[in-house]
Amino acid sequence: MTKPQNSLSKRDEIIEVASKLFYEQGYHCTGIQQIIQEAGAAKGTFYSHFKSKEELGIAWLKARHATWNHWLLQFINPKKTPKSKIVGIFDFLGQWMQDANFRGCAFLNTMCETPDCENALRLEISNHKRELFELFRALTAEHHATKTKIEQEQIATTLFILFEGTLIQLQNFQDLSFLQVAKKQVTALL
Amino acid sequence: MTKPQNSLSKRDEIIEVASKLFYEQGYHCTGIQQIIQEAGAAKGTFYSHFKSKEELGIAWLKARHATWNHWLLQFINPKKTPKSKIVGIFDFLGQWMQDANFRGCAFLNTMCETPDCENALRLEISNHKRELFELFRALTAEHHATKTKIEQEQIATTLFILFEGTLIQLQNFQDLSFLQVAKKQVTALL
Amino acid sequence: MTKPQNSLSKRDEIIEVASKLFYEQGYHCTGIQQIIQEAGAAKGTFYSHFKSKEELGIAWLKARHATWNHWLLQFINPKKTPKSKIVGIFDFLGQWMQDANFRGCAFLNTMCETPDCENALRLEISNHKRELFELFRALTAEHHATKTKIEQEQIATTLFILFEGTLIQLQNFQDLSFLQVAKKQVTALL
Amino acid sequence: MTKPQNSLSKRDEIIEVASKLFYEQGYHCTGIQQIIQEAGAAKGTFYSHFKSKEELGIAWLKARHATWNHWLLQFINPKKTPKSKIVGIFDFLGQWMQDANFRGCAFLNTMCETPDCENALRLEISNHKRELFELFRALTAEHHATKTKIEQEQIATTLFILFEGTLIQLQNFQDLSFLQVAKKQVTALL
DNA sequence: AATGAATGAGCCTTCATTCAT
DNA sequence: CATGAATGAAGGCTCATTCAT
């Protein structure tokens, strides 16, 4: 007897449930108990797969990183020019936040509840944001190919900051007008 | 016999200790027990002053709002022009984050660990940010007095977004170069 | 309303129950859960009185030390001479072990399950045994007043070793003949 | 293909690791998990060799009995006379305790954490001690060949008690002077 | 002979809150 | 205005054991 193809392993089920709960309720406000209960697993099963809650948290953020990047790239890859891709990132932001009920970014949320910079979760968080930053850098370099490295860096960083600032205030106010303003500023930079 | 002037009431002592701990450790990760212990108060004393942890949280954010605004205004009020005041807000941001060991903004941090938008803490948070936003609006209106309301709004919002985006990435990366980029963009807008 | 005189405080009830269970089942094999359940207390109540299981363990050993010493002194104080007191200690040993179902000595038992010599419980244990040793020393000095300090020390130590060795083998074999042999040797030393 | 001679079977590896851990940490404080992890075995492997933790405990004590007896006999067999062998047993005690960091006797330790006299582990323990007792009996009979059986028994038992009492107090106080006293008393008995 | 996922009771401890004094 | 004992659910984690492969 082989497992049915569409059945997840217990480990994956746990990660899936945890992803939902960590995002919706926050990392610290979500207990292992709730996770395993909703995943239909036993305590021992959980700890045979993850040596601690933190390890699950890391698995969650790694998975989230992959998923989120996939969403974003699927959204912007159809665009032809680097410029439209950059603008597309901000369009994606609006779409994403609406779909997510303005819960914000799993990575920023977790950073905010994790003061210790040396914490392993923080490493995943900064990696995630660094990769987004790199995307802005790459697209900016392509779009502003004639400008100097320094000018490119200034613009890419500004785009990244605008993205993050808009994101956090969409979460705060659930008001999409922030996005309109940001997009206007973005086009001004391109 | 009146209390000596320099002695805080138990209530104020509790708020003071809570402010430190909520900010440093996060709201949810800080327990009432630790607060009253460090404040030298009894359980019952705490609950005679605050009907719940949330009420203390609100008192904290209200006090924090006043304190933070005071810091900011003391920093920018000596500046003469609205332009230098706006730039001053970003200088303040750098100073503040360094002093705070890059722990970020108490309000954003608490928002990130509080998913429910209807939560009473969230009201204090949006009030705080709205007031900062208003400050950008007022200073922009003064500086760009000749521009239209719509143009002013665009610029003020952009400044606010830049502030928030820089703040959150200073917290994430502890790298002040984000601030340099933001300031360059700010001056470009003025 | 004052408490009835014969009612123990929750704290004392916990210690009393713990004393029974720690002795009968061993320190590590007895859980806080069982203790509070049998004492009719809540988890939180326990931890408002003791900051950890270890602290309860120490309270237990301190109380046990007092109780056991009281038992012993009540048994040997009626005896007139130091010699009969020393022999009395060994009579007490037999009585005690029979009453205790040959469960042995709470202090030795706990020492054996606590490898770390720096452990706080180990301090209580060595204090307890040191005091018993002192008793042998004092009674020996009185009985053998004409002998040298060195000779006295040799005899007192031997008596202490005989006591401990007999105790542990009574526990092991539940065979009182060890005690008869020890007593014969004891009298030979006096 | 046969296994290389110097490779232990999984079963023996498990026993070897368990021996170390049970002795150092105590029987109840050592979990199956740690044992199999340090032995590089799987859960199922463990339970295919031992039907329970207790069975491993028994295997451990049986192996320990053989090992310890081997140590002791190797130490005293070179001695020529029964008297020097008896004294040698006490010299061995000092050597052993120093090598073992004064962790005491695996058998006594396990007895102390195992209240139930009917427990299978307790059988191994009393067997071990009985055999040591027999050794004292045999050597005493040889040395005091002219004395009566009853006198021999009295002396052998005293020697055994002295050994056990010294052992337990070496463990308690890590103070070798107990051993000096015991040896003086031993020689007085021979 | 060996694997390792799965179980669920139990470990020690902290949580926010209530209440009699 | 203050005290601190009492509550019981929940926190993260380990336990010895089973079983399908």
TrEMBL record, chains A, B, C, D:
Keyword DNA-binding: yes
A family per Pfam: TetR_N
DNA-binding region per Swiss-Prot/TrEMBL record: 31-50
Keywords linked to the UniProt accession: DNA-binding, Transcription, Transcription regulation
HTH tetR-type domain mapped to chain residues: 8-68
Gene3D superfamilies the UniProt entry points to: Tetracycline Repressor, domain 2 (1.10.357.10)
Record-linked PANTHER family: HTH-TYPE TRANSCRIPTIONAL REGULATOR LMRA (PTHR47506:SF3), TRANSCRIPTIONAL REGULATORY PROTEIN (PTHR47506)
Name this polypeptide is given: TetR/AcrR family transcriptional regulator
